[in-house]
């Protein structure tokens, strides 16, 4: 009789364990890492958190698809504070989605998407871009999942630029909102943030390196050179133009005539 009750008890425990396991599998997406503490925000795109490992007691996480200024660069501290505010908002309960296509970076940090909740549709990565504190950068590998994230990040950046959020607060009405320098051909996005339409037919986009040789007249690459207010337009450079850590300059005249650019878009690769 005692053995019978023991078998019933063991069976009950096994069934309960199976129910809990199934609940966790179906309640939360698989492949997510849970961080149940407030991590250290290193800068605008990197956190470190404690883990139960003798060999590596802390783990670095670099946010996928975005880049922020370094702490000693203009805007670096603002980006860090914005990231820290989002992390504190979550009270340390963060979920890390590290796609298999995204490899560890050269500093052995995990390259990942950060979520405030496992079923969030908008990641912390996207929120930082949408609030204007981060910019899109090249992802290491391509897949449907990463291309979808890349598109969402691009849309978030365009919205931030139009609405002058975060680092986009400064500048004139027409600015370079994005350059996807890693595509072939490269994709350039301009936005008009003003209240009236602007003709950019005789404006120029310049790659200052090497020796200010890369120059495009916008009227030659845009289907419609009149940009309506609060609108984004995009075009391709039709050839590999500016494919490294660099900058691009926007002029409302031929830059060979001299004068200062209306806008400068600085970008860098994944580091």
Could you explain the architecture of this structure?
This protein is of the alpha+beta class. It has two domains: 30-168, OB fold (Dihydrolipoamide Acetyltransferase, E2P) (Beta Barrel), CATH 2.40.50.90; 171-271, Immunoglobulin-like. The chain is 26% helix and 28% strand. The protein is built from five helices and 17 strands. Strands 1-6-7-4-3-2 form a six-stranded mixed β-sheet. Strands 13-12-16-17 form a four-stranded antiparallel β-sheet. A three-stranded antiparallel β-sheet has the order 9-10-15, covered by helices on one side. A hairpin with a 6-residue loop joins strand 12 (204-207) and strand 13. The longest helix has 26 residues, at 2-27.
| Average pLDDT rating | 82
The end-to-end distance, rounded to whole angstroms, is 67 Å
Q: Could you give the order of the helices and strands?
A: HEEEEEHEEHEHEEEEEHEEEE
CATH topology of the largest domain: OB fold (Dihydrolipoamide Acetyltransferase, E2P)
Write the layout of secondary structure elements.
Elements: H1 2-27, E1 32-36, E2 40-41, E3 46-50, E4 58-63, E5 66-67, H2 76-89, E6 93-97, E7 110-115, H3 124-130, E8 135-136, H4 144-162, E9 174-180, E10 187-192, E11 198-199, E12 204-207, E13 214-217, H5 218-221, E14 226-227, E15 231-236, E16 246-251, E17 263-267
Parallel strand pairs: 4-7
Antiparallel strand pairs: 1-6, 2-3, 3-4, 5-8, 6-7, 9-10, 10-15, 11-14, 12-13, 12-16, 16-17
Short description:
The chain contains 5 helices and 17 strands.
Question: Which tags fit this structure?
Answer:
single chain, OB fold (Dihydrolipoamide Acetyltransferase, E2P), Immunoglobulin-like, four-stranded antiparallel β-sheet, 5 helices, 17 strands
């Amino acid at each position: 009789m005692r053995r019978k009750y023991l078998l019933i008890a063991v069976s009950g425990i096994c069934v309960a364990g199976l129910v809990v396991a199934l609940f966790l599998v179906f309640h939360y997406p698989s492949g997510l890492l849970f961080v149940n503490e407030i991590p250290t925000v290193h800068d605008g795109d990197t956190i470190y958190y404690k883990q139960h490992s003798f060999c590596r007691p802390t783990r670095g996480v670099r946010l996928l698809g975005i880049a922020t200024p370094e702490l000693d660069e203009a805007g670096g501290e603002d980006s860090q504070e914005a990231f820290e505010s989002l992390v504190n908002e979550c009270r340390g309960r963060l979920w890390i989605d590290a796609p298999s296509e995204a490899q560890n970076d050269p500093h052995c940090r995990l390259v990942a998407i950060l979520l405030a909740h496992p079923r969030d549709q908008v990641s912390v990565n996207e929120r930082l871009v949408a609030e204007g504190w981060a910019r899109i950068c090249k992802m290491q590998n391509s897949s449907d999942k990463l291309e979808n994230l890349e598109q969402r990040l691009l849309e978030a950046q365009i919205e931030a630029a139009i609405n002058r959020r975060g680092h986009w607060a400064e500048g004139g009405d027409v600015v370079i909102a994005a350059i996807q320098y890693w595509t072939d051909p490269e994709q350039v996005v301009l936005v008009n943030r003003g209240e009236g339409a602007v003709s950019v037919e005789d404006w120029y986009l310049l790659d200052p390196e090497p020796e200010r040789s890369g120059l495009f007249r916008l009227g030659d690459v845009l289907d419609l050179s009149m940009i309506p207010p609060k609108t984004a337009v995009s075009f391709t450079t039709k050839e590999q133009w500016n494919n490294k850590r660099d900058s691009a300059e926007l002029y409302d005249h031929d830059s060979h005539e001299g004068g200062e650019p209306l806008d400068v878009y600085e970008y860098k690769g994944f580091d």
